Fold these 2 entries.
Entry 1:
Amino acid sequence: MQLYNTLTKTIDEFVPVDGKIIRMYTCGPTVYHFAHIGNLRSYIMEDALEKFLNYSGYEVKRVMNITDVGHLTSDADSGEDKMLKGAKREHKSVMEIAQFYTDAFFEDCAALNIKKPETVVPATSLVPDFIHMIEVLMEKGYAYQAGPNIYFDTSKVPNYYALTGHDEDQLRIGVRDDVEEDTNKRNKSDFVLWFTQSKFEDQALKWDSPWGEGYPGWHIECSAISIRHLGGQLDIHCGGVDNIFPHHTNEIAQSEAYLGHPWCRHWFHVQHLNDKGAKMAKSTGNILTVSVLKEKGYDPMVYRMFCLQSHYRKPLEFSYEVLSNMASAYNKLLNRIKNLNPASEQADAGQVAAYKEKFISLVGNDLNTASGLSLVYDVLKDKALSDATKLAVIEDFDQVLSLDLTKLRGVSEPEKAADNELVQYIEERIAARKAAKKAKDFATADAIRAELLEKGVAIKDTREGTVWELV
Ligand code: AMP
Ligand code: ZN
């Protein structure tokens, strides 16, 4: 596979160190709120990557952390503790919040066909490992104690900015810097490994450590969890682009200082999903969730398709208008697949293999999922293929796309015809209602809505267009 590597800034041939097994680490969610669909864009693309590697014949060992301690509202070790913020907001304990939002996260993942990594590790479950790693960093002279905290000394690593390619001053251009400078730091880019004498009086979670009671910084968890479960050589590390600095930059510094050798060869970063130009963020309340999409009548698969249609290295602009178009494209696609009639024919194994090869070469070009998806349409159009072969190829691709492309099949022929007619009818009536509204004929528009409802179809006007669902 050819895959862009943030570390080398080139598209590299991706090959695991260890033959057929790929060691993959993913930064998991900070569980103080629901995951927004921006976060989930990152997880959808990481899921597609994992499944594509599997599909291409590799075994993937994937580990994800759950950040349930140590992540402050500013990535520069200042501000409030995010978990504490969530607990206060909901008048619950930090652990209750963590459990609730971890479960909610995996429910959202299930709805989007994002496979749960085989190893999921809450940060709070591995604090002794973090302490051990910090002790080694202290012994090796990479960490120091100042004021109440233990810091990593970034001046001790030769190429601290390797991942970003820029130094911190350049990186911070345009970023509002409303956090006061921590005077305990020897260098501006140093970061906290361990907070002692907790800076928050009501800090809920504290552990004993050689430096006093306290809690770990955010970055140390991913290094320690990754090394514990995947060893000292990582093939690929994933996250959204906001993680490049400081989080992943700091992970590299402390992991390589601890191990004494290079750690992760390939860095995969997903660009952000934006909503009206602003970065979606849990902390600002600018948050759109899978549940909101479902309430508005969208199948979560439509959102997955929306993500797969765009390249992971391009920012993606969210709008209901585009999502509605995607919903209609998805429905049409499912119906075309549903109408395939393989009867009792056998799929042609040679043709299936040829399409598999094509799919691998298209998607293997820097995870070009959009090309993989358009190949589904080519398959449907290909007159040289029997319906049985088409179906077999599409089922095969769906191992990676995970769009439940054949979910309407298994329905009887009369039902199938009725269903197609229904979709057509709904689309026609929605168009007629739109025309009536435009002509200010609201009585007709209301009558169409009522008529649809009587047939079990609820429609909803969103700012960006009309959506429908069966009730
Ligand atoms: P968090 O829960 O904030 O730790 O973030 C979970 C994941 O979502 C990380 O990989 C982030 O880099 C990623 N992420 C955060 N915001 C966005 C966004 N707007 N679009 C895509 N990915 C994001
Ligand atoms: Zn991480």
Entry 2:
Amino acid sequence: MILLWEIDTPIDPALLSLMQAAADCALHMEGVTRPCAVSVRLCDDDAIHVINREHRGVDRATDVLSFPTVSYPEGVTAGQADKLLRMEWDDELDACMLGDLILSVPHVLAQAEEYGHSPQREAAYLLVHGICHLMGYDHIEENDKRRMRAMEEKILNAVGMSRDEQASISDETLLALAISARERSYSPYSGYAVGAALLCADGRVFQGCNIENASFGLTNCAERTAMFKAISEGATEFTTIAIAAEKSAPWPCGACRQVLNEFAPDIRVIVTWDGHVDQAPLAQLLPHGFGPKSLAE
Ligand code: THU
């Protein structure tokens, strides 16, 4: 999912990575295979108050507002509305525009405190709630409300943000997040797009894609993009990395094996391509690896 950010009020960047993963997951869980985009504005209470008054006639601040572009027929959601999504295709974005979301950053933080959970859970919840509206869900009738809540929980569980915040994400979701990250690959020279999703022991997921360069040698692989993002955000322990390509198995290159070995010699590597899945522990991919321990010894 392409998120077009408009950030008026600063927010912890780690929340933005999580929101990206949650948005990718929402499309996957809904079964939407077409690329989609949503614009997300992060603002303060005064700004959301004005929008709420002008567009909905409600004279108060709120946590999240959603303005869908698609009008779904009764009972239909994005997963069953490919024709309607196609009508919202944007040539410049190369994606279907699902609509706009506005989130109040002070509301995210205050509600997290009020409900006794992390700002991560609250930010992911509000984004997922808004995206569900943009995908045709609502909570006016009791039946619809149950359906929407079930979908929200399914998406939040999948990104490890369930109510107890303990559940870790499944291999299937990690692979889906790697496949979504692949959509953001910058690979005009090789045409070989790769995506990765790195699961940390604390439940966070960092996505990465390969990023090429006209000077060729400066190319960064998807795995290293994900790992460098994670290290620079303070993650220290890693359990699994999922890697996705299209036509052949994207087993990590030698350089990536060496970088993974630096931080996570025991990591499990899962690869997916063309509907296939395979996996191996890094120790098997890099036998007799040279790492921090070698120097210490
Ligand atoms: N690539 C990765 O991103 N990960 C791998 O494990 C193998 C290769 C990228 C680098 C380059 O952009 C393209 O794939 C072709 O080598």
